[in-house]
Design goal:
The chain is an alpha+beta fold. Helix content is 49%, strand content 7%. It has a six-stranded antiparallel sheet with strand order 26-25-27-28-29-32. A three-stranded antiparallel sheet has the order 3-2-4. It has a three-stranded antiparallel sheet with strand order 21-20-24. A hairpin with a 5-residue loop joins strand 25 and strand 26. The radius of gyration is 47 Å and the shape is flat.
Length: 1904
């Protein structure tokens, strides 16, 4: 053990008997056994002493530091003698002693047997993958390890997987935290009963040894700790100590893992106070022990802690009965003698602030508080261990050890108490720590295990005053960063707030504390204690008031602020976490009537704190201008508890409301925020920078809104319902600064607002009123209704994915509340309001997620613009919602035009809030509405449709919520109403609507038009007025008598405020309205240049509405009362709850409602309508105006047309881009229909997409095709079995790629190269199955010189990223498709083509000769090409490009490097690769005929020309030309002479398709059709013979002899050469001469296919053998000669293709069953040539029979390539791979990935597996896919594509139940394979279109 002083021996100090000298040399085991025996005796004194002595020596012997006499260098200095060995020794001794002489392993096993495994308790650290099941959890923090989760049954539960942030522990088996139904199989059994009792002697030694061991550890910790010098912790030193201690702590950790029996021993040791006292007191004669004790005391002192004498138990007095004794003096009791004891810390803080602002917080010093912060007394090992754990800033190992012990119940309680005892110290350390993040995580790792358990939390709350400690510590933490508040009265403010710029807030250092606090408040028993304790509540409200008014914003009026502070993040986070979340926690326990008392307590202390706050900031009645704070937590506490009281506890609202004066003060600041929001959106705060917008957005954002804007609006609603409505309305307009705008005059002066902001501020004010009056979130909606409204609002803005909806819907932040994400109510509401749109695929590549979209009936009945406006973070979302609504109405045919936001009937108000509706029936509002209607009608400036919309909305709300009685109208007229009198008689909107206002006196600027004119403006209603007065004299006389007064909102408000204050208080002081404010907000009348004018109005609200209807509809007399036609409307009004339409329909609806509510209104409406008819229109449109209107309209229409055209153009462009790779792109997209068969005399003409000229391709100025060359190994992935391979998910399932096409071809080539001549081998097969070069084009052509200048310009344009110009990459200038080369078009005319295609009647023998001759002459190309021309240069450069496309290893197969044969092989293989790939793109056969994309965009014709040109440079020596062997009989002797040199490959081992390409590329181009057919015919005979030999090898000996016999009989029939039986028998007899069929013996069974061969099955075998050749040949013919491919059924594919190739004689009858042999046409006698071919094989098999046979059987039927099949559920992949170790470096990779082509497991970005600067994924992509790799990233569920030097994230093929990806597995929901997506991925892989379809590519620099 690395440190321990010789320990003071427990018990009486007996003299130590010295062990005999050989004692040490004795075997450890023997000593241990001897001691164990000694201790087992009844009188074990001697044994105990002996053991003590041994331990003392052993544990200090390894202490290399004992020599350091002064001990100053202490442990941190390390040791000279290498402590490692000594430590090992000590541990060995301990293990031996514990085991009592037996083997340690056996001892461990024995102890484990007694483990009552009731709890899992597995502890994990950060980044561990764990599970959380909300269905089974009682505590929201519950978590399970993967093993317990999978062993339990959670089907159908709401669970998710997560990566642990801070670490945690498995709760399986703990019924306090989770329901028992969720326990796994291991922990379900309550196993206490059946576990036997632990035998005493098993753990006896442990009880003796462990105290010493732990004491050693503590001593070492004491010595190792040096107080950090100048406030910089010597972290290096601490870490060094910890490193030395690693083995010891690990040893302890291993002990805890032995199970319950060992844990209980450890618990005894750790909590035994006597042991601790004996060993550590530092008394006794041992110097080392004394020294160690001194170091301990120094450490305590330096931590600002005192070490009390034993007078105080636990350092905390027993709590006095009842409430706690937190003294409430001025400022509630927080930290006691903080100032003196912790001075070092405090002074720094103050120094940095410089202002000494904290000095005003005078804290009471009751002993108890002092003890909370500053007293610690350790009485057991556990306590001191925790102390050092904290001192060393929570080393991970120690944390794990302490947590591993938790399954022991006794330990759990002891440890929790110890933790609480150290709580203040922990937080002090955290505050000073430099690594506060790591430390926070580790603290929470511990505390969450302790405080999630309700029983435990309750116990420590009662016994250790946990709540007092937490609140005190929170206060203490925040006090270090208080500053003076500048809100309101800067000079005299006494309020302090937290400074959001401090590290404590900025880095969120307080979160462990707050998170613990929230955690314990979630337990009902604890929360109740908190709510009952008045002292705690007072302290808490004081804590909350630190945040009240923080982060104050002052509006910049002159220049832009220099530095945009980002402190608002900290401020919002602090309010949410430190104030709102505890509030929600408390609220969740105030749900029932019995809890009324709690609410009263909170409300009472909250109001007191608010009153203190108003006093502290000197607030009277006017807020200071141009400043706003978004943080009013006290207001919000008050509001939320009020809301709860009314909603759940049936409290009477008035009993918890303060007096009117307090209400007036309360409403000011929340209203100020609403006005500021409007100002910010009107760009009035633009000089404060972007951050102010950020604040406005955060305030309404989904995670904050229900703790911020919702309580604010609710509080305003409460104030509005209790205050005088006129006062409230005028306050609103004054706060929004639009009072001056509300005048009848056409011009006005606004003293407080610029003209450009007026309109949006007016809109803001009206919108606010609408929200205030129509929002019902806290005024009577049930939780389900709220959830539904929230969901509808979010879905109306945009379609949403399930996860974003969960995120956007503000849930009650406390997890124990009713609405939790994923709860049934959420899902049921979602399915009620939305339809699921499954994820779709666009061919263009962008993959959609599964979305939810509102159902039609939701648009129809529930779309609520008010809710949308309240919830939008971005203003554009409101527009988006309206656009979607408009589209729905158009689509469903409900309303064609541009609808207005619909009017929606609201849920009924809760009776407590009925007063809110008085706002709608107050004269002030009516005057405002009347004025605005008039202004809109008169077209005054700064009014918008939005204003009108809101005005009508308010009128309609008023009519909906009017008092039912009309009779009291008369009575209300006589009340003293001062100046309103002249406007409206009463306050009911229904009667005020019909009240006519004749004249209005207004104050206008001198310049206004009203001043000059004497005659009143409107004349149309003169006659109407007189007519009415004669009819109803009684009412109207009073109306006409006076002129309506100048109406000043501000003056009114002043009076009201004065009255209220006079009423509520008799003190003189309050009656003085401070002059300071009233001068600032002078009434609009006071401006000097205003003059008074009288306007003649003669309108009522009703008449204005009717005129408005005319104005909106643009027709006179457009309004006609509907009830005149249909009286039913009035009797049974069917007014819908929800109405669509625009302004006209809104006006009609309002008039109908007005008529319904009063007969007089109805009559007046009819009269107005009758009177309007006279010719004078309400607003006359003169001819000139009409002209301008028409002009405007025309202009508007032109603009719309232009928009439409642009949109159409954009969509056309988009669709072109998408179809650019698509199947049926229209013909005209492809400029290159080169090989047309019509006899046109012109040359092929190409369009250059750069210069736009068209013309033929010439030698000097060649044209080229834009092509993309890429290496491909797709062909090599074909397999011969139909079963697709699956991704391995167990160790046994590994994939070995021996059966892939590439592997088989590789084996074949190397076999041939072993036995035959190299140059001949390279002609016999083709390569390119792996790393073959695939050439594809978009079909566009360009001049090669144009292309060069285009590349130059790209090189200079640095912006283009994603492809590298240096590598020749570019995008097609026309369609932007990715490309990297240009393939020159061979000059030639179509005429020539047609001549070459005419069939000739030459015999096959003649043709064969011609072919041979043509192959012989190299100069058959036009002469010019041989000389250097531009064209030939380009051909060479493109050939170079093709070679460089693939890696060297895929080009060089020759044994002698650099031989021309190698290039030869490579070139014809390129042709083969392209043909084979095209075949795969067509689905592996040609049944579909010519209609396929591949043909249209093919560049094979051009490619052939380039290849042929280069092939001709290497002419084959005519000696070796296989053509000879195919078509001529040789003299037998030629082979005998050259035995010594290697043989050539026998012709039957040649790959026929390769031969075909060689023959054709050797011919001069362009090729003649009959030559082509001739070559095909000859090769078919060879192919057929190969099929027969393969068949003969496959069948059994008996079959062979039978066939040999039957065939021989028909040998002399007329068409023997076309009968497969004859040929087969001949082949068999020929080959029997060699050893091919011999020595099969054991091998026989493998070759014999179990089927007996019938003629049908043989025919099928032969056809299948020949088909691949026919397919490739037909494709080739199609490209070279432009002939269409016929389509056919699968079974007739052979016959159709063979006739299309001219193999079938034309007169062939189709009535017999088709026989493949009938296609044969032998140019020389069949049997002779066959015999010649067979003899070659016989020669070879003389020596190598086995290989000879293997080479004959060619597998020609490859299935299409596929990616690996993936399992249904992602979890199966994840669980296997995320813990799998890498085969290269044997570590578990940080980012594991798996290749979807071959299943190889790789480390992404892993430096461990890097080779020559290539990381493993890149390397693998080159080896497996020749540069293309498809990897599934295990930890992210995403697929990544590597293509060459670029990569892109492709997306995920695993989606959750809602059709969403879960990138990085952040949500951790179960994911299922999406087959369609996987098919798309596979399709892109096979068709090589990754480059075209995926847009976001980036370079990977070989780092993946």
């Amino acid at each position: 053990m690395a440190a321990a002083a010789a320990a003071a021996v427990g018990g009486p100090q007996a003299p130590q008997p010295e062990l005999p000298a050989p004692g040490l040399a004795l075997d450890k085991a023997a000593t241990a056994a001897h001691l164990k025996a000694a201790l087992s005796r009844p009188d074990n004194r001697a044994g105990a002493e002996e053991l003590q002595a041994l331990l003392e020596r052993v544990l200090s012997a390894e202490r290399p530091l004992a020599a350091a006499a002064d001990g100053e260098e202490a442990a941190a200095a390390g040791s000279g003698g290498g402590p490692g060995a000594a430590e090992e020794e000590a541990l060995e001794w301990c293990k031996c002693l514990l085991a009592g002489g037996g083997g340690y392993e056996e001892f461990c096993a024995a102890v484990r047997a007694y483990d009552p495994a009731a709890l899992c308790g597995l502890v994990w650290t950060a980044n561990f993958v764990a599970y959380r099941c909300r269905t089974c959890g009682i505590s929201p923090c519950m978590s399970l390890c993967a093993e317990c989760f999978h062993q339990g049954d959670h089907t159908g539960h709401d669970f998710n997987m997560f990566r642990s942030q801070a670490g945690g522990a498995c709760d399986c088996g703990d019924s306090n935290v989770m329901r028992e139904s969720g326990f796994c199989r291991r922990h379900q059994i309550k196993s206490s009963s059946n576990i036997p009792c632990v035998p005493k002697d098993l753990l006896m030694m442990s009880e003796f040894v462990l105290p010493r061991f732990i004491f050693c550890l503590i001593q070492y910790l004491r010595e190792g700790y040096n107080e950090p010098a100048a406030d910089v912790p010597s972290e290096k030193d601490l870490n060094k100590v910890l490193q030395l201690l690693e083995p010891q702590i690990s040893f302890l950790e291993d002990l805890t893992k032995m199970g319950g029996a060992m844990r209980s021993v450890l618990t005894q040791v750790l909590t035994n106070q006597q042991n601790y006292k004996d060993l550590t007191s530092g008394l006794g004669e041992n110097a080392c022990a004394k020294k160690s004790h001194e170091k301990y005391l120094i450490a305590l002192k330096s931590s600002g802690l005192t070490y009390p004498e034993d007078k105080l138990v636990y350092g905390i007095q027993e709590p006095s009965a009842g409430t706690s004794t937190l003294a409430v003096q001025g400022f509630a009791g927080a930290t006691g003698t903080l100032g003196q004891l912790d001075s070092s810390d405090e002074e720094d803080q103050d120094g940095s602030q410089g202002l000494g602002k904290r000095k005003r917080v005078k804290l009471s010093s009751s002993t108890k508080d002092q003890s909370i912060m500053d007293v610690l007394k350790h009485k057991s090992f556990l306590e001191e261990l925790l102390f050092w754990t904290i001192k060393y800033e929570f080393p991970q190992k120690m944390v794990t050890f302490l947590l591993n012990m938790l399954p022991d119940q006794e330990y759990k309680v002891a440890f929790t108490k110890t933790f609480v005892q150290h709580y203040a110290f922990i937080m002090k350390t955290l505050k000073k720590s430099h690594e506060s993040d790591t430390m926070s995580n580790r603290i929470v790792h511990i505390s969450v295990q302790l405080f999630s358990n309700e029983e435990l939390a309750r116990q420590v709350t009662e016994e250790c005053q946990l709540l007092d400690i937490m609140v005190t510590v929170l206060l203490y933490m925040m006090e270090s960063c208080l500053i003076k508040s500048e809100l309101q009265d800067e000079e005299n403010s006494l309020h302090v707030v937290v400074n959001c710029g401090e590290a404590l807030l900025k880095n969120n250092t307080y979160w462990p504390l707050v998170s613990d606090f929230i955690n314990i408040l979630s337990h009902q028993s604890v929360a109740k204690r908190f709510l009952e304790d008045h002292g705690l509540l007072v302290t808490w409200m004081n804590f909350v008031s630190f945040f009240q008014g923080m982060n104050l914003n002052k509006r910049e009026l002159n220049e832009h602020v220099e530095f945009e502070s980002q402190t608002y993040y900290a401020a919002f986070a602090a309010e949410l976490e430190a104030c709102a979340q505890p509030m929600w926690g408390l609220l969740s326990h105030c749900k029932v009537r019995e809890t009324q008392e709690y609410t009263r307590n909170v409300v009472r202390y909250c109001l007191e704190a608010l009153q203190d706050w108003f006093d502290a900031i000197n607030f009277v009645d006017e807020p200071a201008p141009n400043q706003v704070t978004f943080h009013l937590p006290l207001h919000r506490y008050y509001a939320m508890f009020l809301s709860k009281a009314v909603k759940c506890q049936e409290l009477d609202l008035d009993s918890v409301l303060p007096d009117q004066e307090m209400l007036m003060k309360l409403m000011i600041h929340p209203l100020q925020i609403q006005a500021s929001l409007a100002e910010i959106h009107s760009n009035m705060w633009v000089r404060n920078g972007l951050q102010i917008k950020g604040q406005a957005m955060t305030y309404v954002q989904s995670h904050f809104c229900n703790s911020m804007i919702d309580p604010d609006i609710y509080l305003l609603q409460v104030c509005a319902s209790r205050l005088d409505p006129d006062y409230f309305i005028s306050s609103v307009f004054e706060r929004f600064k639009v009072v001056d705008l509300l005048t009848m005059a056409s011009q006005h002066q606004n003293t407080v607002l610029d003209a450009e902001h007026e309109r949006s501020m007016l809109e803001g004010a009206l919108t606010f009123l609408v929200i205030l009056l129509s929002l019902r979130l806290h005024l009577g909606m049930s939780d389900d209704e709220i959830l539904r409204a929230e969901m509808v609002a979010q879905l109306c803005m945009n379609d949403r994915t399930h996860s974003s909806l969960l995120d956007l819907i503000p849930e009650n932040p406390n997890p124990k509340s009713g609405i939790i994400p994923g709860s049934y109510s959420f899902e049921s509401v979602l399915s009620a309001v939305a339809d699921f749109k499954a994820p779709v695929f666009e061919p263009g590549g962008s993959m959609q997620q599964g979305m939810y979209t509102p159902k039609a009936e939701v648009w129809d009945q529930e779309f609520d613009p008010v809710m949308v406006i309240l919830r939008t973070v971005y203003r554009r979302d409101v527009q988006s919602a309206m656009d979607r609504y408009t589209a729905f109405l158009k689509q469903s045919g409900k309303f064609p035009g541009n609808p207005w936001p619909p009017y929606k009937k609201r849920t009924p108000l809760h009776p407590s809030y009925k007063g809110l509706m008085r706002l709608l029936h107050c004269k002030t509002l009516h005057i405002v509405l009347f004025t605005l209607l008039y202004k809109i009608l008169m077209d005054h400036q700064n009014l918008s449709e939005h204003v009108l919309c809101m005005v009508l909305y308010l009128i309609e709300l008023g009519l909906e919520n009017s008092a039912d009685e009309e009779s009291d109208e008369e009575a209300s007229l006589c009340g003293p109403e001062r100046c309103h009198d002249s406007w409206f008689p009463g306050s009911n909107l229904v009667s005020n609507m019909r009240h006519f206002i004749n004249y209005v006196r207004v104050r206008v600027p001198e310049t206004a038009p009203e001043v000059k004119r004497e005659s009143p403006a409107s004349t149309s209603s003169d006659s109407l007025g007189s007519l009415q007065s004669s009819r109803r004299p009684k009412v109207l006389q009073r109306e006409n008598s006076g002129t309506a007064q100048v109406f000043s909102l501000v003056a009114e408000r002043r009076k009201k405020f004065q009255e209220i204050i006079n009423r509520s208080s008799s003190e003189a002081a309050n009656q003085v309205v401070r002059p300071k404010t009233s001068s600032k907000w002078s009434a609009p009348g006071s401006a000097p240049q205003l003059t008074t004018a009288i306007l003649e109005i003669k309108e009522s609200i009703l008449s204005l509405l009717i005129k408005l209807h005319h104005k909106l509809s643009g027709k006179q007399n457009s309004y006609y009362p509907p009830w005149l036609d249909d009286i039913e409307i009035l009797i049974q009004p069917e007014i819908p709850k929800y109405s669509h339409g625009d302004g006209i329909t809104a006006v009609e609806r309002i008039l109908l409602k007005a008529a319904l509510q009063s007969r007089m209104n109805k009559r007046i409406i009819e009269e107005i309508c009758r009177k309007v008819t006279p010719p004078v229109p309400p607003k006359k449109i003169t001819a000139a105006e009409k002209k301008t209107l028409d002009k405007e309209e025309r202009r508007q229409k032109a603009r719309e047309r232009q928009q439409k055209l642009l949109a159409e153009f954009a969509s056309r462009q988009k669709s072109f881009m998408e179809t650019a790779m698509d199947v049926d792109s229209p013909e005209n997209d492809i400029p290159m229909e080169i090989t047309t068969a019509e006899p046109q005399v012109s040359e092929a003409v190409y369009d250059c997409v750069i210069c736009g000229q068209s013309g033929p391709s010439s030698e000097d100025r060649p044209t080229g095709l834009v092509v993309l060359l890429q290496a491909s190994s797709v062909l090599g992935q074909c397999r011969d079995n139909i079963e697709p391979k699956t991704l391995p998910i167990t160790e046994e399932e590994q994939i070995y790629p021996w059966d892939t096409c590439a592997a088989v071809h590789d084996v074949r080539l190397s076999l041939l190269q072993r036995y035959f001549k190299d140059s001949s081998c390279l002609l016999a097969v083709s390569i390119g199955w792996e790393g073959g070069v695939y050439v594809q084009t978009c079909g566009h052509t360009l001049h090669i010189d144009c292309h060069k200048s285009y590349m130059e310009s790209l090189r200079n344009d640095q912006v283009l990223q994603g492809f590298s110009v240096d590598k020749g990459e570019f995008t097609c200038p026309l369609c932007r498709q990715f490309a990297n080369s240009v393939l020159p078009c061979y000059p030639g005319s179509n005429v020539e083509n047609n001549l070459w295609q005419r069939p000739s009647n030459k015999s096959i023998q003649d043709l064969i000769k011609e072919v041979e001759e043509l192959q012989g002459q190299p100069g058959a190309f036009p002469v010019s090409i041989i000389s250097e021309t531009n064209l030939s240069k380009e051909m060479e450069s493109v050939m170079k490009d093709i070679k460089n496309t693939t890696q060297k290893k895929y080009r060089d197969y020759s044994k002698n490097p650099g031989s021309p044969d190698n290039d030869f092989l490579f070139m014809y293989s390129v042709a083969r690769t392209n043909l084979e790939l095209e075949l795969i793109h067509r689905g592996g056969n040609l049944c579909s005929g010519g209609a396929s994309t591949a043909g249209k965009r093919s560049c094979l014709n051009q490619l052939f020309h380039v290849l042929a040109l280069h092939m001709r440079l290497y002419s084959i020596d005519s000696e070796y030309n296989p053509w000879r062997k195919l078509t001529q009989l040789e003299e037998m002797n030629s082979q005998l002479g050259n035995e010594e040199q290697q043989l050539e490959v026998p012709i039957l081992y040649h790959d026929v398709t390769s031969l075909l390409l060689v023959q054709i590329l050797m011919m001069p181009q362009p090729l003649r059709k009959d030559h082509f057919t001739c070559i095909v015919k000859v090769l078919f005979t060879l192919l057929y013979t190969q099929a027969l030999t393969a068949l003969s090898v496959k069948c059994s000996e008996e079959d062979r002899s039978a066939w040999k016999h039957t065939g021989a009989l028909k040998k002399n029939t007329c068409d023997a050469e076309k009968s497969y039986k004859v040929l087969l028998s001949f082949v068999i007899s020929e080959l029997s001469k060699g050893k091919l069929y011999h020595e099969e013996g054991t091998q026989e069974c493998t070759m014999v296919s179990p089927i007996s061969w019938s003629p049908e099955s043989m025919e099928k075998y032969l056809q299948d053998f020949c088909l691949p050749f026919l397919r490739i040949t037909s494709l080739l013919q199609h490209h070279l000669f432009g002939e269409d491919l016929p389509s056919c059924q699968e079974e007739e594919e052979f016959s159709v293709l063979s006739s299309c190739l001219g193999l079938l004689p034309t007169f062939y009858q189709t009535d017999h069953p088709f026989i493949s042999a009938s296609c044969l046409e032998w140019s020389v006698p069949a049997l002779e040539i066959i015999s010649q071919w067979c003899s070659e094989i016989n020669t070879f098999t003389e020596t190598h029979a086995e290989q000879g046979k293997a080479l004959l059987i060619q597998e020609s039927r490859w299935k299409l390539p596929h990616l690996l099949q993936l399992p249904e559920n992602y979890n199966t992949i994840f669980q296997y791979y995320h813990r799998k170790t890498c085969s290269v470096c044997t570590k578990v990779p940080k980012d594991p990935a798996v290749c979807l082509v071959c299943g190889t497991f790789v480390c992404l970005k892993g430096l461990c597996c890097k080779q020559q600067s290539y990381c493993e994924c890149v390397l693998h992509s080159q080896n497996c896919g020749a540069g293309t790799g498809i990897f599934l990233l295990i930890n992210a569920s995403v697929i990544i594509i590597i293509r060459g030097h670029r990569f892109c994230l492709w997306g995920s093929v695993y989606l959750d139940a809602h059709g969403e990806e879960d990138r990085d597995l952040r949500r951790g929901k179960p994911l299922y394979i999406c087959k369609e997506r996987y098919k798309v991925l596979e399709q892109q892989w096979i068709s090589h279109t990754f480059d075209h379809i995926n847009k976001r590519w980036g370079p990977h620099y070989n780092g993946l």
